[in-house]
Each structure stands twice: as C-alpha cells, then as structure tokens.
Automatic annotation (TrEMBL):
Positions that bind [4Fe-4S] cluster: C58, C62, C65
Keyword ATP-binding assigned: no
Keyword Repeat listed: no
Taxonomic lineage from the root: Bacteria, Bacillati, Bacillota, Clostridia, Lachnospirales
Entry note: cofactor: Binds 1 [4Fe-4S] cluster. The cluster is coordinated with 3 cysteines and an exchangeable S-adenosyl-L-methionine.
Keyword tags: Iron, Iron-sulfur, Metal-binding, S-adenosyl-L-methionine
Pfam families xref list: Radical_SAM
Protein name: Radical SAM protein
Organism: Oliverpabstia intestinalis
Domain Radical SAM core, first and last residues per copy: 54-216
An MF annotation (GO) of this entry: iron-sulfur cluster binding
Amino acid sequence: MDACMLCPRMCGVDRESGEKGYCGMDGKLRAARAALHMWEEPCISGTRGSGAVFFSGCSLRCIFCQNYEIAQGNCAREISGDRLSEIFLELQEQGAANINLVTATHFAPAVIGALKKAKAQGMYLPVIYNSSGYERVETVQMLEEVVDVWLPDFKYMDPELAFACSKAKDYPEVAVAAIREMMLAGGRCEYDDNGYIQKGVIVRHLILPGHTKNSIAVLDELYETYGKDLTISLMNQYTPLPQVRDIPDLNRRVTKREYEKVLDHALDLGITQGFFQEGGTAKESFIPLFDYEGL
C-alpha cells in the first residue's frame, strides 16, 4: 500500500507512510465491530448469525450509506493482523455460520494474511466478501484464494446516478467486470444441509426512491448476462439518514408501489433464484451499533 491501487479510485497514495486514500484510511488496519449479525439473507445469518467484521472506511462512500459513520472513517479502532486472525477464530467459537468481511477492499492484503493465519489455526467457516461491487478485477483475483462466497452490491446502471450518489461515474462498467470475475471464481450458490451458503455469488441491489428505472436496468443486465445461474437479493430497506435530508427523492423511503414495480419486473424476467424483502426493513434499528464490540 505504498502506492495504493487496491480500489478503482487508484489514488496511488502512500498509505504505509500514513497518507490517507480516497477510502479515508491509511495503512493501519481499522474496524468498528466484530459480532454475530442476524440481519443478512437467511442463508447467511440463519439462526446462528453471520460472523461480521465491519471494516472502517470505504472506497465508494455513497452519500446515502446506512453505515455512513464507519464509511466516512469516523468510527475506527486500530487492530493488528494477528488480532484480526483471533477475531475470526472467536466468531467461529461463538457459533457463527460464516466469516463476513464487510467493506474490506482497502485492507485486502492484511485481511488475506489474517485469514490464512486463522485457517492454519483451525478456522474452517466459509468466508463471505461483502462488497459495494466497486472493485478492481485484480483485487478480486487476489482474494480468490481465501474467499468462498461473493456478496457484491450492484447499485447503478445509470452513470449519472452513480456520480450523483457516489462520485463514481464508472461504477456500472466496474461492477459488471467485478461481478463477472466473482462468477468465474464462485459460480452458482451451494448450500449445506441446513441451508447455509458455502460457495457462490449473491448480488444485492438496493432500490433507491425515485429511481426504479435504474433498478430495472440493473436487473436486465444481470439476468441477460447470467440467467438462472445468478442469485439476486432485491432490497427495499433504504433508510433516509440525516445526511440526505435536503436531497430530493433520497430523503424518503421507497414506496410500496416502487418496490412492487421492481419486484414485478424481476418476476416477469424469470428471476427465480433470489431473495426479496417484505415489511419493516427500512428502519434505523436494523443498522448495527458501531461500538467496537468484539475488537
């Protein structure tokens, strides 16, 4: 990380010497929480919980992010690579169904080293790479030796929307390439006898209020490319937080009509492998406390 090129921003700063990249982080490993997480898809959390490690900082930094506090680097505790290995083993001892790496792109080398050490010490759980989808193919390839399940977002097919929300006009082409590589590495989803995912790719899409056309374009791209080989998770949990209160559309929740429009399109396409949300998922109470638990 002395000339960091891990994410598509490729800012090239010397993070090892203390400079901060676009992600907001220098070369020191930082996280905000490591605990059993019950609010992922059923095949990830189930009744056991997912062993989620929430890393601080983010290379995409969406304006509406529900994890805004950690994405902006405001909530961050330094940990060593050795401590991260211990955390993985502790989560396994707590009964976690998997190890869930939440926004780890900018710490990829350290995370790979910690996973290798934990596996050498008896960590056997499947590893999930939980990502914004804004990934360099080269970084995905680095991670392939330690990751079993890929859980990327596919946020935007509209470059202008990607720029307005994430300052990443290239997001559509970058995400398409990253997901293609993840599919080559992970393929179709495989589950154990209890329904917990062991291998494969699940692509998430969060519907944004006022932007159903973008959502429909995302679904078209995914289904036309992968058909029934890909599992899609369609999410209605968008929660407007204080940082978007003055932004039209983003300052409200997704309506039932908007969600049903996108869901109906998914069904019309023939998407049968996936998940959708019902009920009160758009609540701040579903956002975990970033209180350094488990670190």
